[in-house]
Amino acid sequence: MSAKTHEVLVSPHPETIVGPIHEYTEEQAAKIKDLREYAHSLLLPPTDPYHPWELRWLNKPDTMTRYSRASKWNYADAQKRIKATMEWRREFKPDLIPPEEVRIESETGKIIINGFDRDGRPIIYMRPGRENTETGPRQLRHLVWCLERAKDLMPPGQESLVIIVDYKSTTLRTNPSISVARKVLTILQQHYVETLGRALVVNLPILLSFFYKGISPFLDPVTRDKMRFNPDLLELIPPSHLDADFGGDFNYEFEPTSYWDQIVAACGIAADGTRVEKTKDESKVEAGALKETSEENADSDDTTPSPTISSLETVLEEKLAGVSISNKNVDVDAAPQPALVTVS
């Protein structure tokens, strides 16, 4: 086992091959394009302060594809789903939560983001036994903040994450109530569709098995299928990225200040919840990327304007550009491909 470290792993192992690979038929690509046009028709007016952030979310490469897959390619259902999420995001503003608002929730390490699985999915560790605050809205906002940061850390082409729930030292007092769990499930299943890659539960005592029986009726069948109890984590996560508590070689020692500072810096989050300002050189790189996106949109007859705020890209994306990670993500606006869908 390696020596103890406070370093947070914010990029996958260099030899990681990002998966799963999603390829779309001509018909599916057309539905994705139609959904994009529909969602942009719902955009807030440019005068609304949240407009740039809503546009940023809509223009992410995985937004339309996730909602299309989640609806099982039923266009009317996809419209309903994405409209509901847009309304929720306008109220909750998950991409603008100031770090200091939720920082106290991270002080015991009950939810931390650290490492990646073999497919390049960011890992969120949840340890209910380390609960340190009373049940309230801030707990939920902290969880959403963590989901947003995990998405920031996803390598290009990756659309999902891994959640490991460790029940070691968890008691009836520290375990979340079924009502809180239902709220969490609602957000995950309705507003972060196709984002959960795996949910791995370890060290679950018999005393708390009733908890999963209680929330089972509220689990979407797809979500339920992604859950595993006491799996061999080394089959799913490389030893260098698996916490030593679970048999890995990554001997991470949680320290609240260094952990928080590393996550905030890696994701480029400013004090007000926006993104850090770019240097002149970074702005040039971003301008080039936005120009390329505009050209792609023009080729696909998508006339939606690209975001103009200077902080659309994160510090992490620049770092990932230098990491050698194989990526077979497909551009859904490119020429139609043969019918083939591969989903893990």
UniProtKB/TrEMBL annotation:
Span of domain CRAL-TRIO: 101-254
Where do the segments described as Disordered lie?
Answer: 277-311
Q: Which GO terms describe its molecular function?
A: phosphatidylinositol transfer activity
* Highest taxon of the lineage: Eukaryota
Looking up PROSITE patterns in the UniProt record yields: CRAL_TRIO
Output the PANTHER family linked to this UniProt entry. GH16843P
What protein am I looking at?
A: CRAL-TRIO domain-containing protein
Q: Please tell me the species this chain comes from.
A: Asterophora parasitica
